[in-house]
Design goal:
The chain is α/β, with parallel strands linked by helices. Helices cover 40% and strands 10% of the residues. The strands form 2 sheets. An 8-stranded parallel sheet has the order 1-4-5-6-7-8-9-10, covered by helices on one side. This is Leucine-rich repeat domain superfamily.
């Protein structure tokens, strides 16, 4: 039976007498759409496999791959997005990374069927030096934001992606706390494809989020969030034309340009914000 490229790679690794820091891998990308880069500094030549070659056997080979992760002490950038490995393998991966002593600067764990348990353990593991965290496409829901808000860690992350995480307006208060305490240095925040249409009880928290992103000059993505015309109305008139580039409110309910013009005219006429009658 022919071995897949990843199986051959793992066999090659096991055949080597690996000393401490024998791996000099700094970037490991197992995303199904991008090439996976392996830079093995040893007696053997460098090997490069594409993700398409790796994909068929990746899930089955992930457990033996975990042993290799324990040797990757120089790893700084890890992309395992789109592998759907689930909580069990992900938690094992975190254990292997912790054993290696590596300090990640970028971690993309998007679309891996992770629950709030995995995400809370991820934030326990992550070093404060991590620059980019992407956990998009995992059904972490609102509970993960509660944990993040209560965390005593202070990350210096510049990019935080929570797109398509089944978040609702109920998490807005915790999200604002999280940004003020844990992720105060974020300059790009992706909350697209959630359900952040705020109800009356969460409106103040919603506006706190908007104000915080503008005060920190943070780029905010709120596209595909079922925002109402009133919410878009408020956002439109809370920001200056120069700040408009900082926020993406595309593909929301009635978010077309004509509607925005009408709402702006209503504001000028009424001199106060109020929802439309319909």
């Amino acid at each position: 039976m022919l071995k897949s490229p990843l199986q051959l790679y793992l066999q090659q690794c096991s055949d080597l007498k690996i000393r401490q820091n024998a791996y000099a891998v700094q970037q490991l990308n197992l995303n199904e759409q991008l090439p996976a880069k392996f830079n093995l500094e040893s007696n053997s030549a460098q090997r490069l496999f594409t993700a398409e070659e790796l994909k068929p056997c990746l899930k089955f080979a992930f457990e033996p791959l975990l042993k290799s992760f324990e040797q990757l002490s120089l790893l700084t950038d890890l992309n395992i997005s789109g592998q759907h490995i689930g909580d069990r393998l992900f938690i094992s991966l975190l254990g292997a990374l912790k054993s290696s002593g590596c300090i990640l600067q970028s971690f993309n764990a998007g679309y891996n069927d992770l629950s709030v348990l995995s995400v809370t353990l991820l934030f326990d593991y992550c070093d404060k030096k991590i620059q980019q965290i992407d956990i998009s496409g995992n059904p972490i829901q609102d509970d993960a934001l509660l944990y993040m808000a209560e965390s005593k860690k202070h990350f210096r992350s510049t990019h935080l992606s929570l797109s398509n995480c089944q978040l609702t307006s109920n998490c807005l208060n915790n999200l604002s706390k999280c940004l003020r305490k844990t992720f105060m240095f974020v300059s790009t925040l992706d909350l697209s494809q959630n359900n952040l249409d705020s109800s009356d009880h969460s409106f103040n928290s919603y506006m706190e989020l908007i104000e915080w992103t503008f005060s920190k000059n943070c780029r905010l993505n709120l596209s595909k969030n079922n925002l109402s015309r009133y919410q878009i109305h408020v956002i439109k008139n809370r920001i200056s034309k120069g700040q408009l580039a900082q926020i993406d409110i595309s593909e929301n309910i009635n978010a077309d340009f004509n509607t925005m013009q009408q709402l702006e005219q209503q504001l000028l006429e009424s001199q106060k914000w109020k929802p439309s009658d319909d």
